[in-house]
Amino acid sequence: MVMNIPEKRLLMIVLWLFLLIFILGQAGCEEPPADDSIWTKPSTKADSDFDVSIYAPYAPVKIDIMPLTEFVNLGDAEGTSKINVYVSLLDPFGCQIKSPGTFRFEMYEHIQRQASPKGGRIAIWPDLDLTDAAENNKHWLDFLRAYQFNLPFEPASNQSYILQVTFLSSPSLGGKRLSDEFTLKCTGKW
Asked: Which domains occur in the chain, in start order?
């Protein structure tokens, strides 16, 4: 059998392709380890029970009462009113974050023209425990990156108040106590 030049060329190309495939196949093939150690993930403390200490750098370091906080007159027959409080928690990088903890709200009278304008305490509301994820989500407004709370309060007209919000972080995040104050002025007739 006599081969002409194009057939010889075709045969050489096919042989080179087989040789290339064989070399690539041998270079990538390796026997798997006998103990399958690469297939099993070593267990860590974070795998067995959730370790929140890895999130400690992102724990809140500052609390901020947002300027959206205001008195709201519901205008019903009873004439009840409330305070819409907007609170943001900030991490060390200044980013607003969500965090488990307890919020405490206190209202003080505002004394004009004093070195310490915070007068006597007028009201204190029950602590709000937001360590449960479902309860935390009820108050979280993602578009504001802040918490919203509605506190019942009947202000006197033309009176100024100081609202103090304290946040007690979860013990697993350091148990820090953060506090901020905000002056509210009730203008108009309530």
From this structure: 52-186 (2.60.40.1940)
Q: Specify the pLDDT at position 161.
A: 94
Q: How many CB atoms lie within 10 A of CB 145?
A: 15
State both tokens at 180. Answer: 């901020």
Under 8 Å CB-to-CB from 118, ≥6 apart: which residues? 108, 110, 111, 162, 164, 181
CA-to-CA distance for 106 and 158, rounded, in angstroms?
20
Task: Look at residue 75 and tell me whether its pLDDT is greater than 80.
Answer: no
C-alpha–C-alpha distance, residues 16 and 101, integer Å: 69
| Residue 74 pLDDT greater than 80, yes or no | no
**Residue pair 18/26 in contact by the 8 Å Cβ criterion:** no
> Dihedral through CA 163, CA 168, CA 169, CA 174, nearest 10?
130
Predicted TM-score of the model (pTM): 0.68
